[in-house]
Design a protein that fits this description.
Layout: E1 3-12, E2 15-25, E3 30-34, H1 41-49, E4 56-61, E5 64-65, E6 76-80, H2 91-101, H3 106-119, H4 135-147, E7 153-157, H5 165-182, E8 185-190, H6 193-199, E9 202-207, E10 210-215, H7 217-222, H8 227-232
Parallel strand pairs: 3-8, 3-9, 6-7, 7-8
Antiparallel strand pairs: 1-2, 1-4, 4-5, 9-10
Helix pairs in contact: 2-3, 2-4, 3-4
Bound molecules: adenosine-5'-diphosphate (ADP) and magnesium ion (MG).
Family: Belongs to the ABC transporter superfamily.
GO cellular component, one term: maltose transport complex
Membrane topology: Peripheral membrane protein
């Protein structure tokens, strides 16, 4: 399995926000965590990334227990909704940044950045600063920063929620194409049912820190296990 959670729980102080979550995400799968705001999607993703400790339970990546492993050594790359680009650096340098930190050879950096720019159609933007880009292009640079690291798993936390409706649809298609092209395991968090239905191989529906149902989009739509799933993504029960 690419990513496996076993009986993961998380409390902030005395408040339990994730309750006994177990999940399996296969290699190459596009998994989507969907649920209303506050249900624990980001917390789950951050525990997979190692940005947040688990209160109990186990996280494995490619069958290695990483529960105690620091984020940089987990082989994951996270893309945030806020882009988190460096404003003073060019697009090229934004994408090269993590490779420079690792002291990668100059030629390797150049190859990886150009390859990612090609995949994301950013070849013409490499010399620009983030402020000179459109919202969609900035989001692509944020994705490019993840691609150059060649992670085992891509983690996306509502990456499209800052974009307008038309651009969201366009970026959704881009993400589907990206997944097909590079075939990596991707975990995508959203509160948007349409995004979940169109992008996912496998959906995890969350409510109040509990996985309500897991399955392929059409199966959940046709056979929701409970009223919440039916109301949230299924056909009217
Ligand atoms: P989602 O991403 O689905 O909107 P989150 O994972 O951000 O939900 O949050 C789940 C719950 O945990 C919410 O009730 C939120 O207020 C709480 N929470 C998240 N992070 C913290 C934190 N650092 N400290 C305290 N409570 C938090
Ligand atoms: Mg969130």
């Amino acid at each position: 399995m690419a990513v496996q959670l076993r009986n993961v729980r998380k409390a902030f102080g005395t408040v339990q926000v994730i309750h006994d979550v177990s999940m399996d995400i296969a290699s190459g799968e596009f998994a989507v965590f969907v649920g209303p705001s506050g249900c624990g999607k980001s917390t789950l993703l951050r525990m997979i990334a190692g940005l947040e400790d688990t209160s109990s339970g186990k996280v494995s990546i490619e069958d290695v227990d990483v529960t105690e492993t620091e984020p940089a050594k987990r082989g994951v790359a996270m893309v945030f909704q806020s882009y988190a680009l460096y404003p003073h650096l060019s697009v090229y340098e934004n994408m090269a940044f993590s490779l420079r930190l690792r002291h990668a050879p100059k030629q390797e950096i150049e190859e990886k950045v150009r390859e990612a720019a090609g995949i994301l159609r950013l070849e013409e933007q490499l010399h620009k600063k983030p402020s000179q880009l459109s919202g969609g292009q900035r989001q692509r640079v944020a994705i490019g920063r993840a691609i150059v690291r060649q992670p085992k798993v891509f983690l996306f936390d509502e990456p499209l929620s800052n974009l307008d409706a038309e651009l969201r649809v366009q970026m959704r298609l881009e993400l589907a194409r990206l997944h097909k092209q590079i075939g990596a395991t991707m975990i995508y968090v959203t509160h948007d049912q349409v995004e979940a239905m169109t992008l996912a191989d496998k959906i995890f529906v969350l409510k109040d820190g509990v996985v309500q149902q897991t399955g392929r989009p059409l199966d959940l739509y046709r056979n929701p296990d409970n009223r919440f799933v039916a109301g949230f993504i299924g056909s009217p029960a």
